Amino acid sequence: MSVVLIADDSMFQRFFIKKIVTETGHAPLEAATGRELLDLALDKAPDLIIMDLNMPELSGLEVLEALRDSGKAFTTAVVTADIQHTTKARCLELGAREVLHKPVDEEALRGVLSRLLPTA
């Protein structure tokens, strides 16, 4: 069972993503702010981070930069309402493996979990 850290300031988004993560047999962790996300990621070393970009305390881009600069390897997927190509490019440049747009499509999310988590 893989650990998936879900970070979004929207309780609804966390609930929706957590439901899919749990249904696919993985253990969810939750964060509501960028600071909480960064602290949990560094402490718990989750197998996957699914994160929003627009969060209080630290933005998703700031978190991606901090994760990259930590020297540890993190697998991340970004979920955002921002559909600009420059934003997607910046996320990928900072190490995100996938970028999904809100509202999150359930099948797209299941595909991300399948592609980015180890099978066992």
Structural class: alpha/beta
Our count of helices gives 5
- Kindly state the percentage of residues in helix: 40-55%
Briefly note the CATH topology name. Answer: Rossmann fold
Quaternary arrangement of the chains shown?
single chain
Strand content: 15-25%
Mean pLDDT: 94
Poorly predicted residue ranges: none
Report the top-level CATH class: Alpha Beta
The shape, in one word, is globular
Which CATH architecture is right? Answer: 3-Layer(aba) Sandwich
Give an overview of the whole structure.
The protein has 120 residues and is of the alpha/beta class. The protein has a single domain (3-113), classed as Rossmann fold (3-Layer(aba) Sandwich), CATH 3.40.50. The protein contains 5 helices and 5 strands. It has helices at 11-23, 34-44, 60-69, 85-93, 106-116, and strands at 3-7, 27-31, 48-52, 76-80, 98-101. Strands 2-1-3-4-5 form a 5-stranded parallel sheet, with helices on both faces. Helix 2 packs parallel to helix 3 (60-69). The longest helix is centred in the first third of the chain and has 13 residues, at 11-23. The protein is globular and about 30 Å long.
